[in-house]
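Thanks for the sequence, V.! I ran USP domain-containing protein right away. Repeating your input here for the record:
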Amino acid sequence: PEKLEGANAYWCESCKALCDAQRSSFVKHLPPVVVFSISRTRWTMRSGKCKDERWVEFPHTWIPSQLLADLMPSSTQDQQDQRDPAQDTYHLRAVVSHSGCFTDVGHYFTYVLAPPGASKGEEWHMLNDSRVTRVSQSHVTDCQAYMLFYER
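Predicted structure:
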């Protein structure tokens, strides 16, 4: 929830005054594809803008209802309990990564999971300009992710 306080407080029509409050938003229906963008830029007093090279853990399977259950209103939670969990399961399909030490210089490339039925089991590929290379799942997990693409 977002805290509304101070200069950003909520204007109450009944009280005719600014009041501290919390605001929440809920997504009723998630789309078939969800994209997460990870900010890799940070600012320092010494050097200004620089690349944040910290490793970020991300799941290969994402089930939003498990992560958000505590945040949902009870009526929404009751509806979620009646749904088939398989309908809410997202699978990682692609990861955009970056090589280079700076935010303004370097090279972007993408890891892509072969479509279901295209190979035996899960097969990841690195797309780097005109080169396509098969890589392990752990190679994908260990990369510096910039964007994550999940598909239901």
